[in-house]
Amino acid sequence: MTATSGRSGRIDRAAVQTRFETVISENRFTIAVVFPVIGALTLVGSAEGLLPAPLEYNPLLILFGTLVMRSPLVVGLLPKIGWWALGCLGLLTAYTYAIEIVGIRTDWPYGAFEYTIQLGPMLFGEVPLALPLFFIPLVLNAYLLTLLVLGSWAANPVFRLTAAIAAVVAIDLVLDPAAVAVGFWAFDSGVYYGVPVSNYVGWVISGTVAIVLVDLAFDRETLLERVRECTFILDDLVSFVLLWGSINLLYGNWIAAAVAGVFCLGLFSTDRYDLELVVDAVPEPLRTRIGNR
């Protein structure tokens, strides 16, 4: 009886995983392209006072959009998340809250900053409760892309960790200028589109801890195999580049936009994003309409 139940549980989990993957695969264009484009327009509209009050910086819409764009990464990684990985990610979650609260209260290590809007419920009235949803996927995206791009070099822990930490900091070179531009948070002063150098020193510190925990969480070989076989697992990074890269372009943050372009090159170098795949991801009715024109 117990064996049957356990076996049935495994079958059910596999069926659920397959269903999730089918939904993501069938809606890649909507998730990875439509959602970030709408998100960029909504955030810019909020920053410029062009939206009605119920839509302006609506936290529910922000959280919902973020969850949808994160879904390819989450679904892609689910088969590789066991108890050990869950424990490491749990530690990373606790660390994420801790370092942000320290940063808010002491101005270390990021420099003096504050949230200028509420990104959903706030923990202790200071940091967003959904902070891990915003931060941890960025670290995971940087790590997974690093594994793919480095190839055999990823076997060397010095190269792997150094490159992944650099990728995390590069992600913030895109994120923070755009987030400041649309009013998510603000620094007292900054030389890089309103962002101080101290912020990136802080990201080196927090990114190092985060990358080490992610590296400990997974078996690199089996994770790399999963990344190679799951075509949509990095679609969240595509969404990130489209959302924050386009906002940087709109506000003339040219260096930040160029860094987003480097991530585009990195994604294309993985041989999973080309014109044919992009076309295949477009829903059939839309492809037909475009073809008729």
UniProtKB/TrEMBL annotation:
A Pfam match: Caroten_synth
Transmembrane segments: 29-47, 59-78, 83-104, 129-151, 163-187, 199-218
Origin superkingdom: Archaea
Keyword Transmembrane: yes
Keywords: Membrane, Transmembrane, Transmembrane helix
Official protein name in the record: Carotenoid biosynthesis protein
